[in-house]
Amino acid sequence: MSARRLLAGLLGAVMWCLAGTLAVAHAADPAALPIVIQDDRGSTLRFAAAPRRIVSLLPSLTESLCALGGCDRLVGTDRYSNSPASVIQLPKLGGIEDANLERIVSLKPDVVLAAPSTRVVERLEALGLKVVLLDSKTHADVHRSLTVLAAMLGTPAAAAPLWSAIGQQVDHAASRLPVTLRGRSVYFEVDTTPYAAGESSFIGETIKWLGLANAVPAALGPFPQVNPEFVVRTQPHIIMALQRDLDEMPSRPGWAKLNALRDRRICGFSHERYEVLVRPGPRLGEAAQMLADCLLALGTSTK
To answer: In this structure, are residues 66 and 38 in contact, taking their beta carbons and an 8 Å threshold?
Structure first.
């Protein structure tokens, strides 16, 4: 990376951070109560004071809340929230399909954080609980979620520097990759059905930020189910997935014809590392570094 490009990137990050700070300057005053936020369904929620008892029913929201300094306010999480380590010992309350309504209510939360698809939302609200729904499929969604959560915590100025730091991490990951990788197509599998991370998903956007192309076009949506024959016809240059799923791919009908599998142009991830890659939250930068590590390890096979 040239000195001019590096300087431009740093200046851009600074201006981005300043712009975000100015945008929330009014709300940044802790005395400016009540706190008013809008979630991703368009609902406006008002808090007389920043919530002190919070339940999170989605791992990415748990991680985002903690990254913004709100971990000590969590009183319970979904069963899959496992980062940072401090949340592992918190009461586990089920998941999107089977959240435990009675246990959530018993914790007397000031607010519940959830995905729009969480089944108990209407019942929680009928019982008088505030529920903030946030859904992150793109980088812009993640940025917005961080902004909403920071405002809810009463510390809105915390979102801009965190988002700027994520961008700098991804920039650094991109700077590590050789120009020979630019434009190489990637198939990133998120489920063996198979579902893939398309170009318009947050994973696809990270892949593009790194200078690569996506084998699944944006027109198919963020996380489409794709025809297995489509993958074979596309012949992606690099395949990324859970290691256990990569191991069985050659046995799928027709997939033995994939040159990426034959030539071992693959990135297989352990379950722990894969979790980082598929959670749209504050570890986007860490995920980009993981992708760069694998791509660099492929060496000359990517040429």
So the answer is: no
Q: What is the CATH number of the domain that holds 137?
A: 3.40.50.1980
Is the whole-model pTM more than 0.85? yes
Placement of tokens 């996506």 in the chain: 214
* Residue where a domain stops, chosen among 107, 134, 162: 162
278 and 247 within one domain: yes
Number of structural domains found in the chain: 2
- 268 phi, psi to nearest 5 deg: -105, 135
Domain of 276, in residue numbers: 176-302
Closest listed residue to residue 149, CA positions, set 280, 273, 287: 280
DSSP assigned state of 41: T
Same structural domain, 286 and 206: yes
Sheet order of strands, 111-114 included: 74-77, 54-56, 111-114, 131-133
- In order, the DSSP letters of 90-110 are SPB---TTT--HHHHHHT--S
> pLDDT per residue over 139-193, tens digit each?
999 999 999 999 999 999 999 999 999 999 999 999 999 999 999 999 999 999 9
**3-state SS, residue 193:** coil
Tell me: the pLDDT tens digits for 44-75? 999 999 999 999 999 999 999 999 999 999 99
